[in-house]
Design a protein that fits this description.
single chain, 232 residues, mainly alpha, Four Helix Bundle (Hemerythrin (Met), subunit A), two-stranded antiparallel ribbon
């Protein structure tokens, strides 16, 4: 009997319609040749990013923690909120003309790539997204804060990769992310510290909520898949 993959389960082909109904249009599951469009899990995507880009590199306790406990992704998003909210506020207050030029270049490079109309390369967009946030951090002119975020570069990239991979192919989350980036950019460039902090915090909070919902939906799908297997 033909079958298709759903997460870590393999379902009979006649169960495809049932599984699709569980997910619904918002959480469309790609099958077969479309598997690259959607990820099975934000946590697993972040873990794959770490294994691909960090093997043989950083051997710090944090890297071991992330490797052995992939759900550290959500802890990382929490830390990003603590650090990037403050860095956005400081950048809005302290950014020099040169800083603003760099932030503008990073933001425009990201927007131009997104609006080019071509197929999105997840890794490239993740790097552009990270570069925009890093430029804001550097404009805070707090060396300790900048060093702390730069020391977490590989981990931060893993969280950005998970966000782009799981959210950017969906229309509503994609528009949400674009609006939030624009809001953050305007607040920093406009010299509005409180607005910049709020924009950064809202951005990361919304991403975490979306990823948690996807993770919960995947768990519900896996339980449904197990029941479907029992029917065979």
């Amino acid at each position: 009997m033909a079958s298709f993959a759903l997460g870590s389960y393999c379902l009979p082909s006649d169960a495809c319609a049932i599984a699709s109904a569980f997910r619904g249009p918002r959480y469309e599951r790609a099958c077969g040749c479309c598997a690259a469009r959607a990820s099975s899990s934000p946590v697993k995507d972040a873990d794959r990013w770490w294994r691909r880009w960090c093997r043989g590199g950083d051997d710090s306790p944090l890297m071991h923690l992330f490797r052995d406990h992939p759900r550290t992704l959500f802890d990382l998003l929490e830390v990003r909120s603590l650090l990037e909210g403050e860095s956005a506020s400081l950048a809005a207050e302290r950014a020099t003309p040169a800083d603003r030029v760099l932030i503008q270049r990073r933001y425009e490079a990201m927007v131009e790539y997104v609006e080019a109309g071509q197929e999105i390369d997840v890794e490239r967009l993740a790097h552009l997204d990270h570069a925009f946030h890093l430029a804001i951090c550097q404009a805070s002119h707090n060396p300790v804060l900048v060093h702390t975020l730069q020391s977490l570069t590989d981990l931060l990239l893993s969280s950005v990769f998970a966000s782009v991979k799981n959210l950017y192919h969906r229309e509503a989350p994609r528009q949400m992310i674009n609006r939030q980036h624009a809001r953050l950019y305007r607040a920093v460039m406009g010299g509005k510290p409180q607005a910049a902090r709020r924009a950064a915090l809202d951005h990361l909070s919304a991403i975490e909520a979306e990823l948690r919902e996807i993770e919960a939906e995947d768990q519900r799908l896996e339980r449904s898949a197990m029941r479907l297997q029992e029917w065979e």
